[in-house]
Amino acid sequence: MDKHLGNGLTENNILDNFTNVFTEYQMMREFVLYRNQNMCHIYVVPSHSSTFVWFGVMFVHKGLYRGIVLRFHVLIPNAFPTTEIPKIVFDAIPFHPLINPLSGELNTSLAFTEWKSSVNNVWEVIDYANRVFNCFDLTDCLPNESLLSCDMFNTQAVDLYRENMDGFRLKVTQTIRQCNQKINEYNTDDSNAIIFGPFDADIHQELQRKLLSGVNVHEESQLADPTHPSVTGLSWVQSGSTQMFSKSGA
Length: 250
Description:
Elements: E1 4-6, E2 9-10, H1 11-36, E3 42-46, E4 53-59, E5 69-75, E6 87-90, H2 122-134, H3 145-151, H4 155-163, H5 165-181, E7 194-198, H6 201-213, H7 217-224, E8 242-246
Antiparallel strand pairs: 1-2, 3-4, 4-5, 5-6, 7-8
Helix pairs in contact: 1-2, 4-5
Protein name: UBC core domain-containing protein
Pfam families: UQ_con
Organism: Medioppia subpectinata
C-alpha cells in the first residue's frame, strides 16, 4: 500500500521524484563526458523535449565517405543507465554496410556486445558512429560468415564491398551527394534541433576567412571576451554555402 506522508505526498511520489532527479543528473553527466572528449567535426545537442534524445550532425573529413554531412539522433532508452545499448539513427540514410537501409539505425554489435553502466558511456556510441565513416574497414569481419549474416544490416553494401570495390565506391559517391542534398531537411519542432541556414557574408565572412587561414577562432574568442568563452561552433557544408546553428541559438 502507498503510504501517505502528508501534504499530498506518498512514498511512491518521493521515490519517483528521486528517480527523476537521478536520471536527469545521469544524463547531464553523460553529456558532459561527451563534451570532454572534444570530438572533431561532430556536433551534438540534447533535445529540449526529451532527456533521452540528442540531435547530432557529423562532418566526415577522411576515408571513403569524405565530404558527407550526416544528421543523426542518439536515442537513449528510458531505463538508462542499466539498459540496452543507446541507438544511433541517421535521418538521411547513407549507403553503408553497418546501417539499416530502411530504418537508418547503426549496427553497434561489432563494438558493443552488451551495455555495462559501470563501464560504458553514451559518448562511446557517438565515437563509434564517427569511426565507421572515417576509418571504415570490414576486412577483419569478412572472413566470419556468421558475423556477417547476423550482424550486418545492409547486405547489398556488404556484397559490393566484398566483390566489387569500384561499385561500392560509386554507391558511396552517390550517397554522399544524396545525403548532403537533404541536410536542410528536418522534421521536428524541438527548439534545440540543429538546423542549417544560408551563408551570410556580412556575419560569417570574417570567421570563414580565419578558419581557412588556420586561426584558432576558439582561443581568439576567449581572449577577446573572457566572460563569454564559448563560441557558436559554426560550420559549413562547403565553402560559402550554409551555416549550422541550433534553433535555440546555441
